UniProtKB/TrEMBL annotation:
Pfam families found in the cross-reference section: SBP_bac_1
InterPro entries: Bact_solute-bd_prot1, SBP
Organism ancestry: Bacteria, Bacillati, Bacillota, Bacilli, Bacillales
PANTHER family on file: ARABINOSE-BINDING PROTEIN-RELATED, DIACETYLCHITOBIOSE BINDING PROTEIN DASA
Transmembrane residue ranges: none
Protein name: Extracellular solute-binding protein
């Protein structure tokens, strides 16, 4: 399908400040359902701009271009892959012309994310992101204090973190690090080392390699020394070893605060005692200022062919404003705002751990849409089951890795 091209030298002149009483109908293309989109963004926007009607148009990865061609949306919310694609095809409006006058305060927005978007746009900024996910090390200060062990530091590697975990006395029933299971720890460590379990170009599984063998050996050593526990508990189980105070650390996303810590606090009340704090997620030794654990999506961009560019700019400007971020910061959420000053933080924790590092723009992520349906979950299951076999001495590591490779390739070859 051929896209007509357009660029930001459109006939329409967009003002930085539009009239809040302006009338318009704004067609928004998003993969979020209408109720969620309106609750998160639309309802607050309509309070300030009561005469701008929002029409939500949904799409999937399979009908992305068809929906653009048919619906001709004014505003997009895009994945990074989609953002980069449309920027290259000159479908998006260049926001630099609106932001360059410094009226819109980019300074408060995570600079690493802005730079990332500019890099994807070949130096131009075609969109903004209001929130993101990233990981951090959660640690139990009381356990560290009890055993006189120094707290984890920002910018530690996985090997350094595991060495720290080994200092806790397993004989006391305390482990240094909890991760959900073998596969979760392997995935976290492989991300920081830029390892992927599949080469999409050649359609080959790449698990039976020296790089993965070294990684799996580190995991097995940590497990056998009881520095790390991998209990393979359900994802939705609130009372994991970190929450119950038997593990000193875990590594997880920002939403762990809401899904686990706040949940336990709500359920147990005064009986729940967890003196926790944060450090940045583990990093690659060669690039300690970047993180591979940023999940960035929902990039808002204007269609260069839209006849409602002013209304679309008003929406983007509002959703990425101090005003909007401040309002959202009053309640806990599942994402970190890109205006990091307004992260919900009633207990005064080191929330900067989630945004101190920059997104790793060199990471090459697997596009699972090019692989058989369900491949991601299934390959995780294979890695976990084979890892568990090594943990219980049912297989040697070499046998398990050969099996991971064979079973994974069979999975990949399915049509």
């Amino acid at each position: 399908m051929i896209f007509s091209t357009a660029c930001s030298s459109s006939k329409e002149t967009i003002q930085y400040e539009g009239d809040t009483e302006m009338k318009a109908t704004l067609k928004v293309m998003t993969n979020a359902d209408q109720d969620y989109f309106m609750k998160e963004y639309g309802d607050m926007f309509r309070v300030k701009y009561p005469n701008i009607e929002l029409q939500v148009v949904n799409y999937t990865s399979t009908n992305f271009k068809e929906v653009i061609e048919k619906e001709k949306p004014d505003l997009f919310t895009l994945s990074l892959k989609e953002y980069e694609q449309l920027a290259q095809e000159d479908v998006l409006y260049d926001l630099n012309t609106l932001i360059i006058d410094d009226k819109f305060n980019l300074d408060g927005i995570h600079p690493g994310i802005v730079d990332y978007l500019k890099q994807l746009g070949k130096g131009k900024l075609y969109g903004l992101i209001s929130e993101f996910q990233s990981k951090a090390i959660y640690y139990n200060k009381d356990l560290f204090d009890k055993y006189s062990i120094p707290y984890p530091q920002d910018q530690m590697t996985w090997k350094e973190l595991i060495q720290l975990a080994k200092r806790f006395p397993a004989e006391d029933g305390v482990s240094g690090l909890y991760m959900q299971n073998f596969s979760v720890l392997a995935e976290n460590m492989s991300l920081s080392q830029h390892l992927n379990e599949v080469n999409v170009k050649d359609m080959k599984v790449t698990l039976n390699t020296e790089s993965y063998k070294e990684l799996f050996n580190v995991i097995m050593d940590a497990y056998e020394s009881k520095a790390v526990v991998l209990p393979d508990i359900d994802t939705f189980e609130v009372y994991d070893p970190f929450i119950t105070g038997t593990s000193a650390m875990t590594v997880d996303y920002y939403y762990y605060i809401n899904n686990k810590i706040n949940w336990a606090k709500e359920e147990k009340g005064d009986k729940f005692h967890l003196n926790w704090e944060l450090a940045t997620a583990p990093v690659n030794e060669s690039s300690r200022d970047t993180s591979q654990y940023f999940t960035i999506g929902g990039c808002m961009s204007i269609n260069a062919e839209s006849e409602q560019k002013q209304a679309a700019w008003e929406f983007i400007k509002f959703v990425h404003s101090d005003e909007f971020a401040k309002a959202k910061s009053k309640t806990p959420g599942f994402y970190v705002p890109t205006r990091t000053e307004y992260t919900y933080n009633p207990e005064g924790k080191r929330m900067e751990a989630f945004y101190y590092l920059k997104p790793d723009v060199s990471s090459v992520f697997v596009d699972y849409e090019l692989l058989p349906k369900g491949f991601y979950g299934n390959i995780r299951g294979i890695i976990n089951s084979e890892g568990k076999a090594v943990m219980v001495d049912a297989k040697s590591l070499d046998e398990a890795m050969a099996s991971m490779q064979e079973r994974g390739q069979q999975l990949l070859d399915k049509k």
